[in-house]
Design goal:
Radius of gyration: 17 Å
Order of helices and strands: HEHEHEHEHEHEHHHEH
Number of strands: 7
Number of helices: 10
Number of domains: 1
CATH class: Alpha Beta
Structural class: alpha/beta
Strand content: 15-25%
Strand order of the largest sheet: 3-2-1-4-5-6-7
Length: 255
């Protein structure tokens, strides 16, 4: 976890707000969008349950935010995911899924195993979370999934990413009917300035930031806090289900 993420976790405001007396579970909570969603949910009065792959950053974040429960496991492992839901201290009101990362590259380079992983980290994982949440989320609660907007336009090297991007909104809409009255919505983000983005872009990160600052209608780069605000709104607003909500600072309008 980055130093800035640690500082944000330590400075979490006292609980008070729209999620008071509710419980929010965040899968992928040790950094980036997941961490900021957990922090904001806690600030809005929620009890939080946190999950992530790596135990050390998860433990630090859980301690800093006062999580009532945490679990370190690989969310793409069906048995581990089922164990997490089975080991929850009680029913939860909302589940946020941020685990997984985009996979780029032509099919000839990805290979069968990496392509399979790319699909399982998104569609299959979303399906598993929906299935397991059916009995673990209180009536009228919600599930928030994470997707993206960047692969909506056909580009070389993005065949698998484009398939995932196209499939998730349809999956979300269908699950909203299957899981009702539990609500399910999809956050589709453009570039978000996180450690994950930095690991993908490497030396190209600063140039990407500068280009977005110059071209985006909002005049700045989208950060994880922006996405967290949308995620918490989808939890709180009980009229929203089955929808896909873009958050990219207008990136699709200019690229």
């Amino acid at each position: 976890m980055s130093t800035s993420a640690t500082a944000q976790a330590r400075s979490a405001p006292a609980p008070a707000g729209a999620l008071r007396a509710q419980t929010v579970a965040v899968i992928g909570a040790s950094a980036g969008i997941g961490l900021e969603t957990a922090r904001l949910a806690r600030a809005e009065g929620a009890d939080i349950v946190l999950a992530a792959r790596n135990p050390d950053p998860l433990e630090r974040v859980s301690r800093a935010l006062g999580a009532i429960h945490s679990a370190a496991f690989d969310a793409t492992d069906p048995a581990a995911l089922e164990g997490f839901f089975g080991g929850l201290p009680g029913p939860v009101d909302h589940v946020m899924l941020t685990a997984g990362r985009p996979r780029y590259g032509p099919p000839s380079e990805l290979g069968h195993e990496r392509a399979r992983e790319a699909l399982s980290e998104h569609q299959l994982l979303a399906l598993e979370v929906a299935r397991l949440s059916a009995s673990g989320v209180r009536r009228g609660g919600s599930i928030v999934l994470m997707g993206g907007t960047g692969a909506r336009r056909p580009r070389a090297g993005r065949a698998v990413a484009s398939a995932v991007t196209a499939a998730l909104p349809a999956l979300t809409a269908s699950l909203a009917l299957e899981l009702a009255p539990t609500r399910i919505n999809l956050v589709a983000a453009g570039f978000v300035d996180t450690a994950l983005s930095a690991s993908i872009l490497g030396e190209e990160l600063e140039a990407r930031r500068a280009r977005l600052r110059e071209t985006l209608p909002i005049g700045r780069v989208v950060g994880p806090q922006d996405v967290a605000l949308l995620a918490v709104h989808l939890m709180v607003n009980t009229a929203l289900t089955g929808g896909t909500y873009d958050i990219d600072g207008g990136q699709q309008l200019v690229e």
